[in-house]
Amino acid sequence: MTAPCPACRAGALEVFFEARDVPVYANVQWPTAEAARAAARGDLVLGFCGRCGMIYNLAFDSARLEYDEAYENSLHFSPTFARFAEELARGLVERYGVRGKTVLEIGCGKGEFLSRLVELGDNRGIGIDPSCPGVEDPRVRVIPAYFSADRIDATPDLIVLRHVLEHVPDPHALLAEMRRVARPGTVVYIEVPNALFTLEDLGIWDLIYEHCAYYTPVALEGLVRRAGFSPRTVYAHYGGQFLSVEAVRNGGGARLEGEGAGLAPLVRAFAGRYREKIAYWRDTLERWGAEGRRVALWGAGSKGVTFLNLVGRERVCCAVDVNPRKQGKYVAGTGQEIVPPARLGALEVDTVLVMNPNYRYEIEETLAALGVQARTVLV
Ligand SMILES: [Zn+2]
């Protein structure tokens, strides 16, 4: 199966990987285990564009997703993530002199990052997000809607787009709208999951239905360039898991240069390596089950929910999350309860699966503080 590539509109997407019946929403938690198990499912049919390096889910149907207030994927309750966000905000304010300026954040979520940018540089903030109920900060104005240039009545000096582009079926159209609200010299900061981490380091738990698009560094840089922005820097951070581009609006778009070709061997090898990793974890959980171990998983986000659905349905007793908005609810597709760390002792858990190495230290510290004698295992 092939389809035209929506990012470069020149190459074709060739299918290289399929996974069926994954939950449509990894980041919606359910009020009961039954409702969680009955959650809607969809398919991943990933295609690769050898011209620009993009990866898309050909089975994605945006009509099946609605981002309302039930959508909860905030990571700000984790001190590790909060530190990362703080350094990022400070870096942007410093590098681009964002002081007394107007900052627009598209897909601002609950507005934590935008508020911080406003605070750090004494800026004005505009946030636009259909899932945002409002922000307390008086210097931040929130528009509860999907973004289009017509909805913004100011000219931003900095536009922030974090973890949005991977949800958007037509990224070129979104960047064109961003260009319309920008002035020459407006800085854009775009952050997405790093598809190279998924391909190279087998970050396979990041493959979720909500993400229709997966960006490799060359694909992101090329897309931004062709949309009329000049990339200043493209880099991976957060342990290689996130990919960012900082760019400035310029006079016109660039041409496609066929940047994706170098990725083809990695893409071809992916499905086989994916199957091996899944088999390893099925066997491991099976063995632990036979040994009578009580296993919990830490992190009821995309990675944790994907792991539970693919391999951990029966053998993992609960999911732990520090976000109180998730606690007491249930994991989409599999129905495990999401519990606060303090419950682990009573649940007699002896093994904690760490879904993200970035949080290992934080998790081990928390377990020690709670007096929970469980060993941590990196997934
Ligand atoms: Zn393409």
From TrEMBL:
<feature type="domain" description="C-methyltransferase">
    <location>
        <begin position="268"/>
        <end position="369"/>
    </location>
</feature>
<dbReference type="InterPro" id="IPR013691">
    <property type="entry name" value="MeTrfase_14"/>
</dbReference>
<dbReference type="Pfam" id="PF13489">
    <property type="entry name" value="Methyltransf_23"/>
</dbReference>
<protein>
    <submittedName>
        <fullName>Methyltransferase type 11</fullName>
    </submittedName>
</protein>
<dbReference type="InterPro" id="IPR029063">
    <property type="entry name" value="SAM-dependent_MTases_sf"/>
</dbReference>
<dbReference type="GO" id="GO:0032259">
    <property type="term" value="P:methylation"/>
</dbReference>
<dbReference type="GO" id="GO:0008168">
    <property type="term" value="F:methyltransferase activity"/>
</dbReference>
<keyword id="KW-0489">Methyltransferase</keyword>
<keyword id="KW-0808">Transferase</keyword>
<dbReference type="Pfam" id="PF08484">
    <property type="entry name" value="Methyltransf_14"/>
</dbReference>
